[in-house]
Write a structure and sequence with these properties.
The complex is a heterodimer.
Chain A: E1 3-7, H1 14-25, H2 32-52, E2 60-67, E3 70-78, H3 93-98, H4 105-113, E4 116-122, E5 125-133
Antiparallel strand pairs in A: 1-2, 2-3, 3-5, 4-5
Helix pairs in contact in A: 1-2, 2-4
Chain B: E1 2-8, E2 11-18, H1 23-30, E3 37-47, H2 49-64, E4 69-72, H3 76-84, E5 92-93
Parallel strand pairs in B: 2-3, 3-4, 4-5
Antiparallel strand pairs in B: 1-2
Helix pairs in contact in B: 1-2
Classes of the chains: A alpha+beta, B alpha/beta.
Chain lengths: ~130, ~90
């Protein structure tokens, strides 16, 4: 079963996002590091949507659930300019860090910490599905 | 919530969670540091890319003026984040 909640487009609402994730996952006894990786991934996607999707003032929907070993988190956001993070260029960490840049590290961490990341866009809704096996 | 306290003349301690909502306030505190300093991260439970960005910006600013930023006592999660972004090869961890 997936539980869903809508969140205002506000970075200061991150605490509510973390609370929603924890509230839904605490019953599964997930290892602390895996829980922190799920929180980090949720933060990276939520803040990307808030900061970079200028085509929406609607709330961001987050659904979460567990199926077998897989924790599944789904982000849905109204967007006229979809950004498919699965097709974004891999950041060249060596070159990036030599120049002391930090952009792109968030998506790199999302792809590192999740087992699967899927993107769909239809009817002006971008949907990102994250799967982490525990 | 992120707490930043000065524990030595050249050492700060970060406690709590360094997420995007804390980036502005952390930037204000860290930008006041103009000499080499160390950050004790033993009580920092969580860091995201926005937190990393503030640390990279601080490191770069100090490096350009001939100073250093060093980190110590990273938790398991924070150490993983530094390892996977290769930041542990840029900012010295003591």
């Amino acid at each position: 079963m997936m539980n869903q909640k809508s969140f205002d487009r506000d970075i200061n609402g991150l605490a509510d996002v973390f609370q929603f994730i924890n509230m839904n996952l605490e019953k599964y006894g997930i290892p602390q590091n895996s829980l922190l990786e799920l929180e980090l991934t949720a933060e990276e996607l939520f803040t990307n949507m808030v900061r970079h999707n200028q085509t929406s003032d609607k709330p961001i929907n987050i659904s979460i659930g567990k199926h077998g070993r897989a924790i599944r988190i789904i982000f849905s956001d109204y967007s006229k300019n979809p950004f498919d993070l699965t097709k974004a260029d891999e950041v060249d960490l060596d070159e990036h860090l030599a120049e002391r840049k930090s952009g792109g590290l968030g998506l790199h961490l999302v792809k590192t910490f999740m087992d699967e990341v899927h993107f769909e866009h239809s009817d002006d809704i971008s949907t990102i599905t994250l799967i982490k096996n525990i | 919530m992120l707490e930043i306290i000065q524990i030595e003349p050249n050492e700060l301690k970060l406690s709590g969670r360094f997420d995007a909502s804390q980036a502005d306030s952390a930037t204000k505190v860290l930008s006041a540091q103009t000499e080499s300093f160390i950050i004790d991260m033993s009580e920092l439970d969580y860091i995201s890319s926005m937190g990393l960005g503030v640390l990279i910006m601080t490191f770069k600013r100090l490096e350009e003026s001939g100073h250093t930023l060093k980190l110590k006592n990273l938790s398991s999660h924070v150490r993983d984040v530094f390892k996977y972004t290769k930041l542990d090869q840029v900012i010295e961890i003591i």
